[in-house]
Specification:
By secondary structure, the protein is an alpha/beta fold. The protein has 14 helices and 17 strands. It has two domains: about 280 residues, no CATH class; about 190 residues, no CATH class. An eight-stranded mixed β-sheet has the order 12-13-14-15-11-16-10-17, with helices on both faces. Strands 2-3-1-4-5-6 form a six-stranded mixed β-sheet, with helices on both faces. The chain has a three-stranded antiparallel β-sheet with strand order 7-9-8, with helices on both faces. The model has no long low-confidence stretch (mean pLDDT about 95). Bound molecules: zinc ion.
Length: about 500
C-alpha cells in the first residue's frame, strides 16, 4: 500500500507590511494535523480538500497529514515561526519514513525575516529529509515568486490558473495524481521554469480578461498538446526576495527540452504583454466622486492598497476619509477595520451605546492619519462562518468578535473586526443582516478575489489606489533583496 505524507505551509509575505507573522497568527487560522485536517477541510474547495478526495479516490493509498499551517498574508515570518513549522514537518517525515510520495501545499511567496526565499528553503529541507528518490510534489498560488531552483527539488508541481483563485482543489489534484502516476511508473515528469525580468502589479492580472486571460489560454493550449502542466505565475509584487518576479513553470512527461521551450515561450509571451499589466487607478476621492455621480447601485469601491490578501492589514484610513469628505446621501457600508481594542470597547459599551473614537492607522500612521468620529454601536457578534462564495468554498472564515458602528451625522456604517481575514464572499455582511444587493455603496478592503462572489451582485466595482502596504506603484517601495535589474525597479531608491 503506497504511503503519502501531506503537509501545508502556506503564507504570502508582504515585505512592506508593518505586522510580522508569528506562530500565533498561524495558531489563530489554520494549525492542524492528523484527523483534524479532515474535519476542517473535507468537502472544501482547497488543497487539503483535494488531498482528502485523492485518498478517497485511491483507497489503496494511505495518507498521513503532517503539520498543516496557513494564515492571512502579512509581513515576514519571524525566525521562530518559520523554524518551528519547518521542524515539525521534517520531524513528521522522519517519524513516518519511508514514504512513497510527499505532497506539500505551499504558497510560493513566503518570506521569513532571516530567509527571503522561504519556500525554497522549505523544499530544500524536505528534500534533504526524504532523500533524492522519494517523489516530492508541491502546489503553489498563482502569485508565487518562484526561484528557478524549485523544479530541481520537485518531481511534480503546478500552480493555480485562475485569479480569483477558484481552482485550488484542481491544482492540488493535478499534483497528487502526478505523484500517483510517478509511483505507478506511468509518467516521469520533468520540470522547467523561466523567469520574467519584471515584477508585475496584480491589479490587471485577473484571468477572466486582459493579458493574463491570453496567457492562460496559451498555457491551456500547450497542455492540450500533452504537457502535464503549464502554469503562468503572475508573482507577488510586495515580496522583496531574490526570487521576486513573474515566471512560467512547465512539466512535461520525460522531455525536459520541451518543458523548457514551453516555459520560455510563455515567459516571452508575458514579456510581450508586460506593459499592459501597468495600469493606473483613480485615487480614493476620485473613485468616490465617480461612483456617486454615476449613481449605479449597489456599487463597490475596493481599496487594493490595504487588501488583506496582499498583506494589507485593514487599517489604512484613506478610503474612509474620502467617503466622509464626499458626504454621500446613499447608504454606505465600510468593510472593514481590524481593531481588536475598539471591538472590545464597543462590545463592552453595548448595542445602542455612543462612542467617541478614531478609525484606522492603529498599526501604522505611515499611510494617513486616523479618522475621528462619534459612533453608535449597532451590532456585536462572532463573525465566524463557512465560506459561501466560489473561492475557498466551505473553508472557515474567522473575523473574530466584530461590531457594526453607525457614524454620527453620516450615512456611513463601519464594520470593525478583531481579526484580519479575507473578504471573498458575503458571509460577513450576511451575519450583520446587511443585504449587499440593496442600493448602497460598499467600501471594501479587498482586490480582485472580491470579484468572484461580488461581481454578479454589484452594478459596478471600482478599484482605487490609496496609500497602503500594497499600493499600486511597486517602485515606490524600498526593495533590498529583489534583483535591481527587474522592471520597474531599475533606478528606484534602495
Ligand atoms: Zn494569490
Amino acid at each position: 500500500m503506497p504511503r503519502i505524507a501531506i503537509a501545508m505551509f502556506a503564507h504570502e509575505g508582504n515585505s512592506f507590511c508593518p505586522v510580522a507573522t508569528d506562530l500565533a497568527a498561524f495558531h489563530a487560522k489554520v494549525w492542524l494535523e492528523g484527523d483534524a485536517v479532515g474535519e476542517a477541510f473535507r468537502g472544501t474547495a482547497s488543497e487539503m480538500g483535494a488531498a482528502l478526495d485523492f485518498l478517497d479516490r485511491h483507497p489503496g493509498w494511505q495518507g498521513s497529514f503532517l503539520r498543516c499551517a496557513a494564515t492571512t498574508p502579512a509581513g515576514p515570518l519571524t525566525r521562530t515561526c518559520f523554524e518551528t513549522v519547518v521542524a515539525e514537518i521534517v520531524a513528521g517525515l522522519a517519524g513516518g519514513s519511508p514514504w512513497d510520495a510527499v505532497y506539500l501545499a505551499l504558497h510560493g511567496a513566503m518570506v521569513a525575516e532571516h530567509m527571503p526565499s522561504a519556500d525554497l528553503e522549505v523544499m530544500r529541507r524536505v528534500r534533504a529529509a526524504i532523500g533524492p528518490q522519494v517523489p516530492l510534489g508541491a502546489s503553489f498560488d498563482f502569485h508565487a515568486n518562484l526561484d528557478p531552483g524549485t523544479v530541481a527539488l520537485l518531481d511534480m508541481a503546478a500552480g493555480y490558473k485562475t485569479y480569483p483563485h477558484v481552482d485550488q482543489h484542481e491544482t492540488a489534484c493535478r499534483v497528487l495524481e502526478g505523484l500517483a502516476g510517478i509511483v505507478a511508473g506511468t509518467i516521469r515528469p520533468v520540470g522547467a521554469l523561466a523567469k520574467l525580468d519584471a515584477i508585475l502589479p496584480s491589479i490587471a492580472m485577473r484571468t477572466a480578461q486582459g493579458p493574463m486571460a491570453e496567457l492562460e489560454a496559451m498555457a491551456a493550449a500547450m497542455e492540450g498538446e500533452g504537457l502535464l502542466d503549464a502554469t503562468v505565475f503572475g508573482g507577488f509584487s510586495y515580496g522583496d526576495t531574490p526570487s521576486a518576479g513573474a515566471c512560467a513553470m512547465v512539466h512535461a512527461d520525460g522531455d525536459r527540452e520541451r518543458a523548457q521551450a514551453c516555459a520560455d515561450a510563455l515567459r516571452d509571451a508575458m514579456a510581450a504583454r508586460r506593459d499592459r499589466f501597468f495600469v493606473t487607478l483613480p485615487g480614493p476621492a476620485q473613485a468616490v466622486s465617480q461612483v456617486l455621480s454615476r449613481g449605479r447601485l449597489p456599487v463597490a469601491i475596493t481599496d487594493p492598497g490595504d487588501n488583506p490578501l496582499s498583506g494589507g492589514t485593514a487599517d489604512t484610513p484613506g478610503l474612509l476619509a474620502a467617503v466622509l469628505a464626499a458626504r454621500p446621501e446613499v447608504p454606505v457600508v465600510f468593510a472593514y477595520f481590524w481593531d481588536r481594542d475598539l471591538v472590545v470597547r464597543a462590545a463592552a459599551a453595548g448595542i445602542g451605546a455612543r462612542l467617541e473614537t478614531t478609525l484606522g492607522a492603529v498599526r501604522s500612521d505611515g499611510f494617513g492619519a486616523p479618522v475621528s468620529c462619534h459612533a453608535t454601536v449597532e451590532a456585536v457578534l462572532e463573525a465566524r462562518y463557512r465560506g459561501n462564495g466560489p473561492m475557498g468554498t466551505g473553508v472557515t472564515v474567522d473575523f473574530g468578535t466584530s461590531v457594526l458602528l453607525a457614524l454620527a451625522g453620516t450615512s456611513v456604517r463601519v464594520i470593525v473586526t478583531s481579526s484580519c481575514a479575507n473578504l471573498i464572499d458575503t458571509g460577513l455582511f450576511d451575519l450583520f443582516g446587511i443585504d449587499v444587493r440593496a442600493p448602497m455603496l460598499l467600501c471594501v478592503k479587498a482586490k480582485n478575489h472580491f470579484r468572484a462572489a461580488f461581481a454578479p451582485l454589484m452594478a459596478e466595482i471600482v478599484d482605487c489606489d490609496a496609500p497602503g502596504p500594497a499600493a499600486l506603484r511597486i517602485e515606490g517601495f524600498a526593495f533590498r533583496h529583489a534583483p535591481a535589474h527587474l522592471y520597474p525597479l531599475q533606478g528606484a531608491a534602495r
